[in-house]
Amino acid sequence: MQKIKSLLCIALIATLLAACTPVTPVQPATQPPTVQASDTTTQPATQPTTQPTTQPTTAPPPPIEIRITAVGDNLLHNTVSNSAKTKAGFDYSPIYQYIKPLNDGADIAFVNQEVMLTGEISAYPLLAAPAEAADGLKSAGFNVINLATNHSMDKGAKDLLTCLKNIKERQFDAMLGAFETEEEANTPIIIEKQGIKFGFLSYTYGLNGFALPSDKPWLVAALGEDYAAADERIRRETEALRPLCDYLIVSMHWGVEYKHTPSKRQQEQAQILCDAGADLIIGTHPHVLQPLEWLESTDGAHKTACAYSLGNFVSGQHKDETMLGGMLEVELTFEPGTHELSDASAGIRGLVTHYSRGVYAVYPLDDYTAELAAEHDIKKYDKALTVDYLGNLASQVVGDALITEETP
């Protein structure tokens, strides 16, 4: 028994001595362990990899699309104004109700106000109409109105100034061709649409024999009978305005009444305007349609769209051909930033003045029906109108530039 106790003591002492002996630590390998190749998929690296950062891209601004519409002579004979009478005054909007949709979305909608809106109704040859006619035009979407016509001075300088005040009260974007002050006459007319600057000039060939007041020679932009002086003026003023705008529109009241082809004088002046930098020429006065033509400047560097005559917008005239007018429609594309014109197209849509039993309205040619034509009171003065006659005449005069419902 004593022997067994001695052996247990010896074993315990040996165990305690072993526990006190220091342990030598294992040194780490100097190289990372080698990964043995195998037939399985390679393991991903243990360190995360940094993915390249994609910078967000900004889409370039889209091109600037501009639409222009223009119509010819708003020739308010006394019969037209009498049809607009109401118990409360005058309402011209029914006359233009079928044209309003054609102006929807137009940045510029031009109308030639043939007679001055002095507040009275006056018959040919000295024409005038109530100021409410301007309300009707605005309700139809027109925002640029021209007053340089051969009828500008029919009622004298005093009534012309009354007309100018009446139109200013309606706040059109631009009023062309006649001016209240000399300062206005010398101030460039420029309006801005979608950031594009549009400049305007307007001229009439004459004033039906009336003279401008000696103290107000600037009252109407009338060119007179001195062709050399007139040509120099339109060249000088066009060249002066062109650098101030992105697109230049010139209204010309010119030509020979009831002629469907432009005169030599019209063609000469159109070429002068093209060479001077005009981009669009809107022609009025002949009371009938004339062609649309693209002109090229003498140096080949510039092109101008010229509508020689848009005919009547509305009138009480008694000739079949004067019932057919046109709406010029121009589509423009400008580059953002530079405002450089990159694309342009133009065409003319036929319009019809309709009157029956003392009621007047303007219709798009495409919407004019045989039933309406049969009711037209033009048959009291000329041969009865037909849709075929109007369509054929439009095609003959305007040709490929005619806009129809089938036009792509």
Largest sheet: 9 strands, mixed
How would you classify the helix and strand content by structural class?
alpha/beta
Give the integer mean of the pLDDT values: 90
- Please report the total strand number as a whole number: 17
Helix-strand topology string:
HEHEEHHEHEHEHEEHEHEEEEEEEHHE
Radius of gyration equals 40 Å
Instruction: Identify the quaternary structure here.
Output: single chain
- CA-CA gap between termini: 124 Å
Measured by DSSP, the beta-strand proportion falls in 15-25%
Low-confidence segments, given as residue ranges, are 1-46
Number of helices: 11
Helical residues, percent:
25-40%
Shape assignment: globular
Task: Provide structural commentary.
This protein has about 400 residues and is an alpha/beta fold. Helix content is about 25%, strand content about 25%. It is built from 11 helices and 17 strands. The strands form 3 sheets. Strands 1, 4, 5, 6, 13, 14, 15, 16 and 17 form a 9-stranded mixed beta sheet that branches. β5 (about 145), α6 (about 155-170) and β6 form a beta-alpha-beta unit. The protein starts with a helix and ends in a 5-residue tail after the last strand.
Keywords:
disordered N terminus; 25% strand; 6-stranded mixed sheet; 408 residues; globular
What does this entry show, briefly?
The chain is an alpha/beta fold. The protein has helices at 2-19, 78-83, 93-96, 100-103, 132-139, 156-169, 182-185, 227-241, 264-276, 370-375, 387-398; strands at residues 64-74, 85-86, 89-90, 108-112, 144-146, 174-176, 189-193, 196-204, 247-253, 280-284, 292-296, 303-307, 312-314, 324-334, 341-356, 359-364, 402-403.
